[in-house]
C-alpha cells in the first residue's frame, strides 16, 4: 500500500471506529441522545473521506459534492452534539447558516465558476465558523470541569486549523488548478493529519465526559433514596459534613430540622404499605420544595427526615419547620382515602460553635421526641448547648 492510499484510508478507519464506539455507548445510555448524534457524525464523515479519494460512477464532480455533503452533515452533528452535551441550547439557525453557506459557496465554485482553491476556502471557512460557534457556546461553561475546558480549547484549535492552516498552505503552495496531484499536496496531507489528530482528541474528551456522567450517576444512585428522591442517610451525612465545614470557615449560622411522620405504623397497618410509600413520597416532595438548593434534605430512616439549613438561625429554622408542618397537615395525600390526615412532628436545633453533625443530630432528635410526646403535629426547639469539656489545669509546683 502506497503512502497516499494509507493516508487516505486513515481518517475513514478512525471515523468508523469512533462512530462504532459512540454507538455502543448510546446503546447502554439511551437517555443521552447526544451519543447517537456523535456516532452519526463520525460514521457519516467516513464516506466523505473515501469519496475524496475514490470516484463514484456518477463522475468526479458529483462525487466531490456528495463527499462535502457528508462532511457538512458530520460537522453539524458534531457541533450540535457537543453543545447539547453541556446543557446548552443548540443554535440550529447559526449552525445551518454557517454549514449551509459553506456548502452553497462550494457548489457555486464547483458548477458555476469552477475553482478548486475557492472550493477549499469555502468549506474550510464554513467549518472554521462552526468551530468558533461551538467555542462561543462552551465559553460560559468552560470552567465547570476539565472536559469543558479541554473541549473549549480544542474548538479554538479547530478554528485555527480551518482558518490559519488553510490560508497558509494555499498562499504558500496554491492556487490549485485541478485535482491532478492534489492528493499528494501539502494541503491535503496536513488536512488529513490535523483532522485525524483533532478527531481523536475530541472523541477522547467526549468519551471521558461520558464516563464521568456514568460515575456521577452511580454516585447519585448510592447517595439517593429511590422512594423519596432525597438523599439517603449516607448521602445526607456527607453533604451535611461539607456544608458544616464551609459554614464554620465563613462563620455562618447553621440549623438542623428533623421530621418524623406521625402514626406511620398505624397508617401502614390500616391502608397498606403502598399508602405509606405515598405518604413518604408526598412529604419528601413538600420538603424538597421548601428546602430548594440552599440546604441538604435527606430521608435518614423509615419515616424520618432531616434538613440542614445553612445561613439559618434557630428562629428561621423554626419558621421553616412550621411552614412545612402546616403545608403537609393541611392537604391530603393523593392515593389515600378522603379524610385521611397525615401529620408530622419536627425537632429543631441550631449549631453552636464548631459543633459537628452527630451532637447536632442528637439535640434535634431530643427536640423531636418532645414534639412526639406532647401530642405530635408540632415543632419543638432545642435550646440546649453542647457540653463543654473542661480540661483541668496542670498542677504547679509551689
UniProtKB/TrEMBL annotation:
Enzyme class, broadest EC rank: transferase
Superkingdom, natural source: Bacteria
Residue stretches making up the GGDEF domain: 252-384
InterPro entries assigned to the protein according to its UniProt record, in alphabetical order: Diguanylate_Cyclase, GGDEF_dom, Nucleotide_cyclase, Rev_trsase/Diguanyl_cyclase
UniProt-listed Enzyme Commission number(s): 2.7.7.65
Catalytic activity of the protein: 2 GTP = 3',3'-c-di-GMP + 2 diphosphate
KW Transmembrane helix (keyword) present: yes
Keywords associated with the record: Membrane, Transmembrane, Transmembrane helix
Transmembrane segments: 6-28, 35-54, 66-86, 93-112, 118-138, 150-172, 192-212
Keyword Oxidoreductase: no
Protein name: diguanylate cyclase
Organism the protein comes from: Mesorhizobium salmacidum
Amino acid at each position: 500500500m502506497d503512502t497516499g492510499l494509507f493516508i487516505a484510508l486513515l481518517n475513514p478507519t478512525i471515523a468508523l471506529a469512533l462512530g462504532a464506539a459512540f454507538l455502543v455507548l448510546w446503546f447502554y445510555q439511551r437517555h443521552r441522545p447526544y451519543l447517537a448524534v456523535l456516532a452519526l457524525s463520525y460514521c457519516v464523515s467516513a464516506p466523505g473521506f473515501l469519496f475524496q479519494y475514490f470516484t463514484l460512477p456518477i463522475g468526479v464532480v458529483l462525487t466531490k459534492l456528495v463527499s462535502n455533503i457528508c462532511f457538512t452533515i458530520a460537522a453539524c452533528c458534531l457541533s450540535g452534539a457537543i453543545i447539547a452535551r453541556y446543557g446548552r441550547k443548540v443554535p440550529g439557525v447559526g449552525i445551518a447558516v454557517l454549514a449551509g453557506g459553506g456548502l452553497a459557496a462550494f457548489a457555486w465554485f464547483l458548477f458555476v465558476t469552477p475553482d478548486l482553491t475557492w472550493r477549499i476556502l469555502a468549506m474550510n471557512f464554513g467549518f472554521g465558523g462552526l468551530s468558533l460557534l461551538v467555542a462561543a457556546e462552551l465559553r460560559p461553561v468552560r470552567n465547570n470541569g476539565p472536559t469543558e475546558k479541554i473541549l473549549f480549547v480544542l474548538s479554538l484549535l479547530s478554528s485555527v486549523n480551518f482558518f490559519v492552516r488553510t490560508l497558509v498552505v494555499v498562499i504558500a503552495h496554491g492556487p490549485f488548478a485541478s485535482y491532478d496531484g492534489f492528493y499528494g499536496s501539502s494541503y491535503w496531507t496536513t488536512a488529513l493529519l490535523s483532522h485525524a489528530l483533532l478527531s481523536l482528541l475530541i472523541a477522547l474528551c467526549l468519551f471521558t465526559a461520558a464516563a464521568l456522567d456514568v460515575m456521577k450517576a452511580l454516585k447519585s444512585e448510592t447517595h439517593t433514596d429511590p422512594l423519596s428522591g432525597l438523599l439517603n442517610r449516607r448521602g445526607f451525612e456527607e453533604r451535611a459534613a461539607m456544608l458544616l465545614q464551609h459554614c464554620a470557615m465563613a462563620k455562618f449560622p447553621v440549623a438542623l430540622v428533623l421530621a418524623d411522620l406521625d402514626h406511620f405504623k398505624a397508617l401502614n397497618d390500616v391502608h397498606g404499605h403502598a399508602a405509606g410509600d405515598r405518604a413518604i413520597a408526598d412529604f419528601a416532595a413538600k420538603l424538597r420544595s421548601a428546602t430548594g438548593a440552599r440546604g441538604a434534605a435527606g430521608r435518614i430512616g423509615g419515616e424520618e427526615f432531616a434538613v440542614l439549613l445553612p445561613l439559618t438561625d434557630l428562629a428561621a429554622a423554626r419558621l421553616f419547620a412550621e411552614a412545612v408542618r402546616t403545608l403537609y397537615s393541611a392537604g391530603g395525600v393523593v392515593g389515600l382515602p378522603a379524610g385521611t390526615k397525615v401529620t408530622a412532628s419536627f425537632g429543631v436545633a441550631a449549631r453552636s460553635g464548631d459543633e459537628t453533625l452527630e451532637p447536632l443530630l442528637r439535640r434535634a432528635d431530643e427536640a423531636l421526641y418532645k414534639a412526639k410526646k406532647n401530642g405530635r403535629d408540632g415543632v419543638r426547639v432545642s435550646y440546649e448547648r453542647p457540653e463543654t469539656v473542661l480540661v483541668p489545669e496542670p498542677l504547679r509546683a509551689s
